[in-house]
Write a structure and sequence with these properties.
Blueprint: H1 2-27, H2 32-50, H3 60-68, H4 74-98, H5 101-107, H6 121-147, H7 149-152, H8 156-178, H9 184-194, H10 202-228
Length: 229
């Protein structure tokens, strides 16, 4: 039970840090590069700090992907997802209380919404596709640097920074189009606290599909290839 509590706390804090620092960078009016760095750097250090406690997931899509390939139980995934959502929501509440109402309104509480987020059904399909691609790349990196023991080895600390760099790169590429969420909790918190629900389903469907595809590909092709060697 103590391990479960520790994992819950780790995921809560990590998801809160991602929401507060990433959302805060947007609310501060920083440019795309700075926003990408803010998300990537805070994720890097938090994943590195908690990898040995909860896996440093901070993302419901990642938790689902790991459960799907039996790297953790569905019960564990559910506990961690609750922690991730709760942490992100608390951070969004904190951001709303810190920043002026006009800034919050102008920047949509740091919501991960891009230029395609206010379009028609065709745009929603594109958001789902692009979020799936971005999250596939993220999950592929996670599998190689933080899950597969061949990639972790004696360099566990490196995994967090590889993951953070992937998030930063994805934001630079996909951010203007979709907001580059890659993380349902990062999208859910501003939606719940600020009411920014534009195409919200896409920010669950895309990341979960992308993470699941990358996890299954790694498990069935890359990991199996080592077993057959």
């Amino acid at each position: 039970m103590n391990k479960t509590i520790a994992a819950f706390v780790a995921e809560f804090v990590g998801a809160a840090a991602l929401m507060f620092v990433g959302g805060g960078a947007i609310l501060n009016g920083l440019d795309l590069v700075a926003v990408a760095l803010a998300h990537g750097l805070i994720l890097s250090v938090c994943v590195t700090a908690t990898m040995h406690i909860s896996g440093g997931q901070f993302n419901p899509a990642v938790s689902v992907g790991l459960a799907l390939i039996k790297k953790q139980s569905w019960a564990t995934a559910a506990v961690l997802i609750v922690a991730q959502l709760a942490g992100a929501v608390v951070a969004a509440v904190a951001l709303k209380s810190v920043f002026a109402p006009d800034v919050v309104a102008a920047k949509q509480l740091g919501a991960t919404l891009g230029s395609l987020s206010k379009g028609d059904s065709a745009s929603m399909g594109m958001v789902v596709l692009l979020e799936a691609i971005a999250t596939f790349l993220l999950m592929f990196c996670i599998m190689g640097t933080a899950v597969d023991p061949r990639g972790v080895g004696k360099t566990a600390a490196v995994g967090g920074f590889g993951i953070g760099l992937t998030v930063a790169a994805d934001i630079l590429c996909f951010g203007p189009l979709t907001g580059a969420s890659m993380n349902p909790s990062r999208s859910f918190a501003p939606a719940l606290v600020g009411g920014y629900w534009d195409m919200h389903a896409a920010y669950w469907i895309g990341p979960i599909v992308g993470a699941a595809a990358a996890a299954v590909l790694w498990k069935t092709v890359i990991e199996k290839s080592e077993e057959r060697a």
